[in-house]
Amino acid sequence: MTLQSSRTSDGRGRLYDSVVDTIGDTPCIRLNRVAPKHVRMYVKAEFFNPAASVKDRLAISIIEEAERSGALKPGQTVVEATSGNTGIGLAMVCAAKGYPLVVTMADSFSIERRRMMRFLGAKVVLTPRAAKGMGMYRKAQELAEANGWFYARQFETPANATIHENTTARELLADFKGQKLDYWVTGYGTGGTVTGVGRVLRKERPNTKIILSEPSIAQLLGSGVAQERGPDHSPAVSHSAFTPHPIQGWTPDFIPYVLQEAVDKHYYDELIPIAGPDAIAWSRRLAAEEGIFTGISGGASLAAAVQVAGRAPEGSVICCMLPDTGERYLSTPLFEGVATDMTPEEEALSRSTPGYQMPAA
Q1: Domain for residue 352, yes or no?
Q2: Same domain, yes or no, for 142 and 205?
Q3: 292 in Cβ contact with 284 (< 8 Å)
């Protein structure tokens, strides 16, 4: 007897010249178990990008815009400050295109990030966590100036918001064509996602409410305190409202210049603070109850989306950004309490049948 699967595939119908050509076009996936029943909730799963985060979009945009303008020469070293995802994306793009990459990163971010970037051929220069994001930012500036390297400047470059305007926003419009999209929920790191998508939704889906979120213990936007900047739009000092928080990839210790447009032009309708433990709890629930594996920042965005859903009218449609995969958080609090050896329950299962038992500890 031959079993026939109900699932079939015709393939993508195309061949790719490079891994960078697979960036974008990530799916929006409905949540069936953790979302309140009176709404439809979707997540835009950015871990479907080839290096598993939304920052792959930014990485290819920075490099290709610099190639077009002549700012990046063949074989020139690229340098950038990053909490990890942009560095991983840049490492992938630079490997595919043949550029050396040097990343500066505070030593507080997960070890997996360092190892992934080095595995992709990048060099990683660590900076003291006490110097916060400004420390790694200034180190990248120093290295670029001292060596004549191309400085990617993710926090200021126009290439950041533009790629989200041209890809992420267009994908959302296509996926929700002919359907409601009442709320779109995101956090911010550089601010490129909310700024780029905000430009488009404000014009083409003006009824969609844009919800922005930030850590409850680092409410830079919520404070109302403006960011001091240098003449090149770089942050002059750490923001006074910043304190260290566990939502890696969200909210550095300054308000990025790319984000400032979203602030000044009112691209978001509401700002929701999210506590780190809530972000972790929702990331864990998403994995255990929906089979969707995202990091702490994705859990934080989902936490905000669930808050919105709780007061949204019946039949509302919500889409929430999931910036990355949970696999780069193995050494962080996200995985605290997840056993490596068998739990007592698992040992009992092992002993419940006679064969293939592990020796007693």
Answers
A1: no
A2: no
A3: no
On whether both 200 and 328 belong to a single domain, the answer is yes
- Residue in 55, 132, 139, 209 annotated catalytic: 55
- What confidence tens digit (pLDDT) does each residue in 239-298 have? 999 999 999 989 999 999 999 999 999 999 999 999 999 999 999 999 999 999 999 999
Quote the number of domains for the chain.
Answer: 2
Is 55 an active-site residue? yes
pLDDT at residue 361, as a whole number: 67
* Per-residue pLDDT, 1: 56
Residue 3 lies in a domain: no
Structural domain span for residue 320: 19-52+166-335
Is there a single domain that holds both residue 118 and residue 252? no
Cβ contacts of 251 within 8 Å, gap of 6 or more: 187, 188, 189, 214, 215, 218, 220, 242, 245
At 110 the pLDDT is: 84
Catalytic pick from 216, 238, 297, 301?
Answer: 297
Where b means 16+ CB within 10 Å and e means fewer, 307-336 reads bbbeebeeebbbbbbbbbbbebbeebebee
Catalytic residue flag (residue 297): yes
Indicate whether 79 belongs to any domain: yes
pLDDT at residue 154, rounded to an integer? 95
